[in-house]
Amino acid sequence: MTDKLISTGWHYQYGWMRRPELDDANGYCYEEPDGSLVFSQHLRHRKALRLACMFDVEAQENYLTISHVPCGASRFVK
To answer: What does the DSSP assignment read for 16-57?
Structure first.
């Protein structure tokens, strides 16, 4: 089965913080609400990161992942 897209939004809309003081060779740093650090080397993530809230059909729970849907296009996803 395929996981379902629930919503997309900017990192701060899901409680993530941009942590530029922690940027290093791993990439641009973001902090999840639980304190975990996530790094991205994509230049477009230098200032902001777009996340997708997905629903795992098998596990019956939501999870967050980096969005691959272009900004504004999520309203067309069904």
So the answer is: -EE-GGG-BTTBEEEE-TTS-EEEE--GGGTT--EEEEEEET
Single pTM value for the model: 0.80
Measured distance CA(3)–CA(27) in Å, rounded = 28
pLDDT for 14-30, tens place per residue? 999 999 999 999 999 99
Q: How far is CA 47 from the centre of its chain?
A: 13
Burial group, residue 11, by CB count within 10 angstroms (0-12, 13-18, 19+):
buried
Spell out the residues 6+ positions from residue 70 whose beta carbon is closer than 8 angstroms to its own. none
